Amino acid sequence: MNKNSVKKYTLKDGSTISIRAMTRHDVDVIYEFFQHIPEEDRLFLKHDVADKKVIAQWAKELDYNIALPLLAFDKYNKIIGDATLHMEDYGWSRHIGEIRIVVARAWRSKGVGLALLKEIFMAAVEKKLSKIVAQMAADQKGAIKVFEKLGFTKEAELKHHIIDLKGQTHSLIIMSNDVKEAVKSMEAYETEQLSLNPAEG
Ligand SMILES: CC(C)(COP(=O)(O)OP(=O)(O)OC[C@H]1O[C@@H](n2cnc3c(N)ncnc32)[C@H](O)[C@@H]1OP(=O)(O)O)[C@@H](O)C(=O)NCCC(=O)NCCS
After folding, report:
1. Residue 138: which domain range?
2. Domain count for the chain
3. Which one of 93, 124, 140, 196 is least enclosed by Cβ atoms within 10 Å?
């Protein structure tokens, strides 16, 4: 996806969404989106998105080679999902991309996550990354299922690595996949299960 393109997807329930990269003008809409995401789902994000100044800073420093944030919008142009591909531009992890994804509760299990992940994998190919990882809590069963469907496997478990809002610790799971394998699984999954119809807008 180049920085000006917009992709349209038709989900399995017939609704149409569009996906594009975040721009510097999206601070208010992103802030609004994260206000409706339950706090426990916000904890795993790299930045404190409850603080508008953090999002403003993030927009100011926007560099698609370090973090590529993709936004999914409904037909009213309201954000319903966000997926970011985090990368290193130097060092021994420069072939790795890390995904962080969150979809608005009301839009879950409709295919928004898969549409965003498809665009993330395509961006990973363009950026010549070879391995892709995602981190989640061991009890985020839904997220684990989504990634397993796309061929990701558990690579590591770090015990007591996460502390939740109540101060309880949880294991952190690191799931990974080869970028090419992820693209292949996505294509196979799409053929069998989905009607994700992207069109360049
Ligand atoms: C993980 C998450 C992004 C998935 O988004 P989503 O839009 O609901 O995902 P999709 O609708 O594309 O679902 C993809 C597949 O996984 C399945 N799935 C989604 N949530 C599931 C759940 N809780 N349990 C079982 N399967 C689930 C869907 O049914 C679908 O499979 P199907 O096509 O065979 O029906 C979303 O649940 C979320 O925002 N979770 C909180 C944040 C998080 O945990 N992020 C992951 C860490 S990076």
Report:
1. 6-200
2. 1
3. 93
20: which 2 tokens? 């594009």
Summarised one tens digit per residue, pLDDT across range 5-16 is: 899 999 989 999
> Is 1 contained in some domain?
no
Would 73 be classed as within a structural domain?
yes
Ligand 1 near 38 CB (within 6 A): no
Query: Domain for residue 42, yes or no?
Result: yes
Ligand 1 geometric centre to CA of 23 (Å): 26
Note the pTM of the prediction, 2 decimals.
Answer: 0.92
Contact 116, 72 (CB under 8 A): yes
Strand-pair category, 131-137 with 6-10: unpaired
Integer Cα distance of 77 and 6 in angstroms: 12
Per-residue confidence (pLDDT) for residue 45, from 0 to 100: 74
Tell me how far the alpha carbon of residue 115 lies from the centroid of ligand 1, in angstroms: 11
User: Is residue 141 predicted with pLDDT exceeding 70?
Assistant: yes
What CATH number should be reported for the domain holding residue 126? 3.40.630.30
Domain assignment of residue 136, yes or no = yes
Q: What is the pLDDT of residues 150-167, one digit of tens each?
A: 999 999 999 999 988 788
